[in-house]
Amino acid sequence: MTDDVPDSLIPYDEIVQEALRAVVGRVLGQVEAMGGELPGNHHFYITFKTGAPGVAIPAHLRERFPDEMTIVLQNKFWDLTVEDEVFSVGLSFNQVPAKLVIPFGAITAFVDPAVDFGLQFQAVVSQLEPEPHDDAENDSQERDTSPGVSPGEDGSNVVSVDFGRKK
Fold first, then answer.
1. Would the pLDDT of 151 be above 50?
2. Is 149 within a domain?
């Protein structure tokens, strides 16, 4: 027997993440069906990527939380609406009301501290929009051909990483 584990052609990680996000949707759907009333002492901390596609939050919140934001659904929220891929909710931030639209794919954590329940999700990197940036100075087509600089040592910041299987 060998220790080599074959690469899977089935994306198990993605399937599990999708199923766990469906748990969040089902829980929020039950709260919506109860008229937006949380049962007992339940309350939720929901963390999500603010730059993920489909996230709609006010500009002042996006400026304050450019990467990730955690909201609390406990006492003061309204208009909770749950759809297949997204939910929306009204919340108040410094006494200013705001409507947030959050796709389930943008969620990175869901916690219900009343019953010590929590889920962590991997960020769906392929769905995130890349951060805008200036071109790197070493991205020009011209290469330094001065003496002492050989190919591969042109000052570029390229790093090769091999994620091969363990042997």
1. no
2. no
Percent composition of the chain: helix, strand, coil (DSSP 3-state, to 5): 25, 25, 50
Residues listed for the chain? 167
Q: How many domains does the chain have?
A: 1
Angstrom distance (rounded) from CA 91 to CA 75: 10
Check if the beta carbon of residue 56 is closer than 8 Å to that of residue 48: no
27-72: pLDDT as tens digits? 999 999 999 999 999 999 999 999 999 999 999 999 999 999 999 9
Question: Residues with Cβ < 8 Å from 14, sequence gap 6 or more?
Answer: none
pLDDT of residue 136: 47
Q: Is residue 159, in this structure, part of any structural domain at all?
A: no
- Whether 33 is covered by a domain: the verdict is yes
Residue 167 counted as domain residue: no
Q: Could you report the per-residue pLDDT of 114-123, keeping only the tens digit for each? A: 999 999 988 6
Is pLDDT of 2 > 90? Answer: no
Contact 17, 107 (CB under 8 A): no
Q: Structure pTM?
A: 0.70
Write out the residue range of the structural domain in which residue 26 sits: 12-122
CATH of the domain at 92: 2.30.30.220
